[in-house]
Amino acid sequence: MSKFEKFLKLIDTVGNQWPLLIVIAVLLIIIIKWKTIWKALGNIKKVTVKRGDTVVELASKNENNSTRVTKEKQKVQEENEKIIDEKGKENTLYDCYLKISNGDLKGAQEAFENIQQNSNQEKKFENEIVFLYYEFLNGLINTEVLSDKLKKDNLGDEDKYLIYYYLGLCFSESNINNKAISSFYDAIKCSKDESQITRCIIHISKITFKSENIDSAIDILTKQLKIVELDNSKVILLKEIGNIYYETKNYTQQIAFLEMALEFAINDTSLLFDLAYAYSQTSFNNASIFHYLNLLNFRPKHSLALNNIGVGFKEQKMPMYAVNYYKRAIENGNSLAAGNLSYIYIDSGFEKEANELIDIL
To answer: What DSSP element (H or E) covers 192?
Structure first.
């Protein structure tokens, strides 16, 4: 039995008590899994990091670090770029949205017509639905325009799925939650594609969570989690459950689901960031540093991770290493790191250096 199957079996076995038992289980996993890491990170003497292909070298120390803790600035969770849901593979189609948003309706229509000329019949219909959705987001049409598309003759299930799915998005944007949920369920009825169904389930859960029905939102996701087969579906469902726990500040539960998601996506940098940040909100700060360092193996110039590693080392009373990572974060455009570093300089009496950093904020 795989770890994932055992994970699901735990949920089934304990019923309504599974969140509590998962917390207990994940704490045991954390203690076992990270025991040697904590020991190593708690006794670091030397950290060597090569830029480009990141190489991390840790060496133990014998002396105590007596540096006092300086004033902290808040850690920042990685910002997910706000993009329009399903902007799609066709970048030029998204360009239509940008033109509509900027009031260039003629330019948007011309760009759309060019896209359609180079698309097959099936793709043309999808493009049309997405374009209507973009128009809706900018107040140019109402949902009736999309609904009328359902009256078209000879619609296949895939076409109906697209219409219902984007209707769901429109109703969700308008906070008409009952119609949004109904539309997503109608979309599910028209699809046999696991990824499409999972996408709808996630939207339904988001709406349910937005209505402050947290347990139901999680139940919707866990039911889907038990039947999906694709690793990608498992990852996005586990991450979404983790997001709910993040929003409710239940970081240990969030860690449990993100750790399981990492089993299927070891190089997912957004997942690594979220997991590292979640650990930083608990007493397992060393595990947080480890995951941020792991993230740098894939994205060496990730400025938020570099800053947060600096914060982590400062909390470990290791200011020299904190300064190193703050500087690297600053080099990659992170202004928060400049503020964090200035506090260290001020507390250490380096007024000139602190003022220079403040000037770039």
So the answer is: none
